[in-house]
Amino acid sequence: MSAPIVIAGAGIGGLSAALALARAGKRVIILERAAKIEEVGAGLQIAPNAGRILAGLGLESALAAVALEPQAINIRRGRDGSVLARLDLSDSGSRWGAPFRVFHRADLQQALLQAALAHEAIEIRTSARVGDFTERSGRLSLRAHGEGGVEEIDASGLVGADGQRSAVRAHLFPTERDAPYYSGLTAWRALVPAELAPAALRARESNLWMLPGAHVVHYPLRDGSIINVVVIVAEEPRAADGAAILALEGPELARLLAPKGPGADLLSLVQAGASWRHWPLFARPPLSKWSRGAVTLLGDAAHPMLPFLAQGAAQAIEDAAALGTAFLRLGVGVEAAFADYERSRIARASRIVRASRRQGDYFHISGPASVARDFAIRALGGRGMLARNAWLYR
Ligand SMILES: Cc1cc2nc3c(=O)[nH]c(=O)nc-3n(C[C@H](O)[C@H](O)[C@H](O)COP(=O)(O)OP(=O)(O)OC[C@H]3O[C@@H](n4cnc5c(N)ncnc54)[C@H](O)[C@@H]3O)c2cc1C
């Protein structure tokens, strides 16, 4: 029997990749650094391009049970909340082949984890950090650091799905000068109990408020009982590291946002949040290659992106599908399959990295240019705005 493919990281990317590879007949070991597999953070929008893939991996009923399907996205002028465009999502299923869904991250990850645990071709080891690896004479050998010391594992391939600060990436391309850098933007994230939110903001809809140098996204989760709120502001870095180490109370964050001139409902929503988590947003320039020999990268390890198109996890899921397809198409050769996977994915993922950055700039326009932007959005309307996203969702 050939050696298994090892996946570093049991995030949404690593778990999806394991399911796709197992479907393609591969034996998989996932090595996860953390002692417990759990998602930090709050909500996640899963657009139809990823939803279709998850359904194809057999997760439809598990996901439908925990998802909420927002009926629309409202793009709002931040200073008074007026809706510039309402993007109707109610026909996403027939239009894009899957509904537009939002999840509590933990619910999505649990659904993926349970599916992986149930698959006999997938083994998951926690407290196992992938360190370095060597590839000699077609033999790949990697070291996993765990509680019991260092274990040497033979693999037929290694997929680095180990997130934005990927150790596999650092080891694969040691000469790349592409360390993560602070983007100048920070996300503050909180879950607000629905009963504390202004009544006008409790609908089963997603909302985007645009302010000068800031924007806010919120949508309901778990049958509407909580509202996931993300406030993105341009600010000086507060800490050198990417970890979420700070928290602000609602009134403190409201004071920080107030100079941007948010509408009253938005300010009330922010005030209602307790313990806003600090999430500085880091970026890396897109790589020109993701693979070398029998080692490749996937998800945030390959193409970290700013979250303004809500496509980071979706792109990790697209990567997973492409990886599985490469093996199904090409048979057993790991190097050929990884090269095929990279070829099929790198242009689209890199384009979305760049487009996500531009989207943030667009949301944050200030002064007279923001009036022109708002006018253009109104003129385009919900249908026109949705049509602009067709290349993402198709
Ligand atoms: C504010 C915000 C909002 C977002 N909203 C959306 C959204 O609405 N929709 C969307 O699609 N995307 C969104 N994203 C992006 C999305 O969260 C990420 O793109 C996605 O979670 C990446 O998944 P991943 O599996 O590639 O990496 P990660 O989730 O980072 O998982 C990596 C895993 O690898 C493990 N690991 C790390 N190092 C090692 C090692 N050496 N050995 C073994 N294991 C290791 C980690 O513990 C972790 O479990 C958002 C991001 C942010 C910051």
Automatic annotation (TrEMBL):
Keywords: FAD, Flavoprotein, Monooxygenase, Oxidoreductase. Gene3D superfamilies: FAD/NAD(P)-binding domain (3.50.50.60). Its cofactor is FAD. It holds the Pfam family FAD_binding_3. Residues 4-355 form the FAD-binding domain. One of its GO terms (molecular function) is monooxygenase activity. The keyword Nucleotidyltransferase does not apply. SUPFAM superfamilies: FAD-linked reductases, C-terminal domain, FAD/NAD(P)-binding domain. This is FAD-binding protein.
